[in-house]
Specification:
Length: 139
């Protein structure tokens, strides 16, 4: 999870820096990702606003950390695990399922009761992807 936080620091999003790390069954890192605009698009090209019409918010333009970790994976992710700073949304859950990732370890689920995350859990449950909250051994 510490690696997910380190990669999240690369995000230019002023309100939410999210990170994700995909590992194989031996915990070897396969891919890293953070939330941001697609490759080649300047960080000042579009808005980072959270409120307003969809077209005038960051949500229309940002790639999430989980999907970027899949895009950046160096090998097949089948049977792997993904460590995420945030519980994945429904779109990222579809990407996780389609790429054969079998377990999600997330740090926070602060949007738990919003419809997008309710749908996410329904998709993951239907596909047999397990998920659990990360618990640090450090206190």
């Amino acid at each position: 999870m510490k690696i997910a936080h380190v990669i999240a620091d690369r995000s230019k999003d002023p309100s939410t820096q999210a990170g994700a790390v995909i590992v194989d069954k031996n915990n070897i890192v396969l891919g890293l990702g953070y939330n941001g605009f697609p490759r080649g698009i300047d960080n000042d090209k579009f808005t980072w606003e959270r409120e307003g019409d969809f077209i005038n918010t960051k949500y229309a333009y940002v790639c999430h950390a989980e999907e970027n970790a899949v895009y950046n994976a160096s090998k097949d992710t089948e049977g792997g695990k993904i460590y995420c700073t945030l519980f994945p949304c429904n779109e990222c859950s579809k990407t996780i399922i389609q790429n054969g990732i079998k377990e999600i370890i997330y740090e926070t689920d602060k949007y738990h009761d919003l419809d997008i995350w309710k749908v996410s859990r329904k998709l993951l449950d239907a596909a047999g992807v397990t998920y659990r909250q990360y618990k640090s051994n450090l206190n």
